[in-house]
Amino acid sequence: MTGTRRTQVCIIGGGPSGLLLSHLLDRSGIDSIVLERHSRAYVLGRIRAGVLEAGSVALLKEAGLGARLETESFLHRGTYLSAQNRGFRIDFQKLTGKSITVYGQTEVTQDLYAARDDAGGVIIEEAEGATLHDLQTEAPYVTYLKGGTEYRIDCDFVAGCDGFHGVSRRSIPARVLKEHERVYPFGWLGILSQTPPASDELIYANHARGFALCSMRNENLSRYYIQTPLDHPPERWSDDAFWDELRRRIPADVAEALVTGPSIEKSMAPLRSYVAEPMRWGRLFLVGDAAHIVPPTGAKGLNLAISDVYYLHRALAERYDGDAHGIETYAETALARVWKATRFSWWFTTTMHRFPDQTDFDQHIQEAELAYLEHSKAAQTAMAEQYVGLPY
Ligand code: FAS
Ligand code: PHB
Asked: Are residues 145 and 10 in the same domain?
């Protein structure tokens, strides 16, 4: 063993949850070290979420991360839904008094890296083979390899912010871990194109051929998704084939005016609902995708990671002030919000997508659900309050 370091919280994962947790802890005078498996460029190269809940925006602004958010994001007061090429709008602002903010996860992560750099935060990139030790003791530690040399970090707590494929969740013994999962029989093929967005707000489209989503990043950067079978790799879809399929599924007037162009990114994301319990084991706390995955339909993934960070940061700050209540109740508090968002994301996904084994009965149920949503203020309010984000 060569280098040994000490910190209060060792954070595994330099994605949005790891970086935000390190930033918030730092603002509370708690030191941390972030271990990231990849390079910063690799992390920033991943194209993922696009929508921030009202609570996420408030937290980021409160934490001094609002500068670019103020000037480069887009406030959306509602969204469009469509069924069989005919659209209707849900007015979030009128129904809930809140809106959502369109600001890419890449930008959030960029802002977080910049904030950590400004504060002299310690982020160890390309840290391989992170291994968590003595999590059930008062002196846990983490070992990792960098450049072929093994290092050790002694700490008080470990935050597993390392995503679905990370090491943290796997450090909880199988006899302790309870996993709940639903895998959907389709994925989302997404593209980025340097074209003006199809609409001023998002369009979630239900269609007999499959789901489609029109989103955006800015006035000249659009993000589109179509539901595809899981065995359709991205390279199977030419840009023209993608645009033709998207046009078939969205409202006719939007398809008519759609501005297309070459894709600058094309990727496929499988869809699953997944929740692991407990989110705490001894001195290890799971955060974000390390503990739960939602289908992106409800735009909850990144936002749930942010609310987990909010709860854990508050719990650790209280703990260092001598009050252990927050860390004792972290898992229960976080999971209560996770399960509500998981249910919403499951409901929205099953309402908007075409399932391979779907029967006529299922089709009529979907159409009735959407018709009820179109004409009922109560139904729209229920959808809107979950989409803009339930309170923390
Ligand atoms: P992340 O996965 O973002 O970050 C985990 C970090 O840990 C990564 O940088 C990884 O390299 C690192 N890591 C992993 N193992 C490690 C190890 N052993 N040691 C050190 N570091 C390790 N959400 C939405 O709301 N809308 C979307 O449209 C959307 N699209 C998505 C598309 C894809 C392909 C994926 C995978 C997710 C998508 N999500 C979306 C969800 C996504 O935004 C996550 O919710 C969000 O990234 C969660 O952030 P983290 O919990 O930080 O996990
Ligand atoms: C996106 O813009 O990437 C996005 C928006 C809303 C979603 C999922 C993805 O529900």
From this structure: yes
